[in-house]
């Protein structure tokens, strides 16, 4: 801030203070007029607010509290009890007087209960959880500066006595000392209860609000991600979809240039990057998100909160994971680190964003989706218009986007199937479920592999004992996984495929394809044969998948974090028009140190 600008600000403040004194106004009117004269936005206002808050919090308010507590007060009650007049009375420190503690208890209980009741009632009316509403009330209960001011003003006016004044002082002190500990207890209790829940789409209640954390590298990522967000929103509620809360995180690398452009703003702890390139990028992202909310035509059901992850690439994943945990999100959506060139091929991309995606996939407290964009955002306008027209019963001639979900088996594929079932309820999405199963050749290979494991486990000497237990355990887990997959897909087929074909169904019919393949080569051939028919492929990452259909594909994978099937779909020699969404289901086992899955608390 230049010296001339600072001089003008000081001169304006002095003139307003003089005007208030000349008009014999209250001293608080001076501060009100000074604050009213300056705009709430802009670099000058942000600088003044940050500097003023620092001075007030560090120096002025502690001195004010000390002045109030240590000031001399005339003991009106004792003067009247002694039969003296006010002029004959004595002055003493209020802290040295005999004090009735029942007043402190009464004032503290009444004040705390009033705040907690008001905050809890308002929070419940706004569909806030009871624990969150209580925690908010406790946090608001900490602020005691206004109580001190009101108590001193009431005492000076003769409304309350010295003892009542000190009761309010003690109430503020007790609240400041006790409230943080109570608030931390409520927060830890709520956090423990959240950890006992499976955070993912498969375990999400469609009737409740769907919370997403969306990472953004730039404005070019908004159309495709908003397309997926809007399609997922229709999976909840009835008719026009459920409520959606989006935490849009701008992922900005911390460099020497951005570090030099950081200024405090938006509050005492807020920061703003004034670098022109970063500011322009965030402005374009904000405009795109605002346009998405306006096009949806239902702002009450779509809430977008902007966040900034400003850190180095090795540490940026922690910002995303903390945001997902605090927001209790069901899904984190991240853009692929590679972008599509004009000729349709994929550029090498930024290695830093790839590291972020790898660490988020490893440490995220919920399910994760990585989006490979190949122009899917171009259908966003038609899909949103389809939403608006469907709400007006005018969907006869709307454009739909063809989406296919590939199901081979495993927890990640089940999560992908759940995500696809939510998207299928959108009138602008035409979903096809592709189940890939083993043909006779693949089944023979699977039986041979099983026999090999069993023979190694039962062989006496070196093959048995310690080596036989892991082999038998792996076979048991694979058989249990296949049984879970069969039950889950059968339920999906009954509810969504067969149910959508019934007369009077609320959603469009979901297509179903079944392909019998022998190995990975035939699987790749099947996927290549479908690349021209669909705009979006949804696949699972396949961490826990042990299938003969994907054996050997990892050896040729360029991006192992996408899984064998996702890497093939994201490669440059696949399609130039089909986008890909790779889904990983939240793995609760990594948050619990147990020796076996049987001891899992979930």
UniProtKB/TrEMBL annotation:
Residues 1-22 form the signal peptide. Keywords: Ion transport, Membrane, Potassium, Potassium transport, Signal, Transmembrane, Transmembrane helix, Transport. One of its GO terms (cellular component) is endomembrane system. GO terms for biological process: inorganic cation transmembrane transport; potassium ion transport; regulation of pH. It is found in: Plastid, Chloroplast envelope. Pfam families: CHX17_2nd (PF23256), CHX17_C (PF23259). It comes from Miscanthus lutarioriparius. The keyword Electron transport does not apply. Residues 244-380 form the Cation/H(+) antiporter central domain. May function as sodium-coupled metabolite transporter across the chloroplast envelope. This is Cation/H+ exchanger domain-containing protein. The chain crosses the membrane at residues 99-116, 128-146, 166-190. Residues 509-589 form the Cation/H(+) antiporter C-terminal domain. The lineage of its organism: Eukaryota, Viridiplantae, Streptophyta, Embryophyta, Tracheophyta.
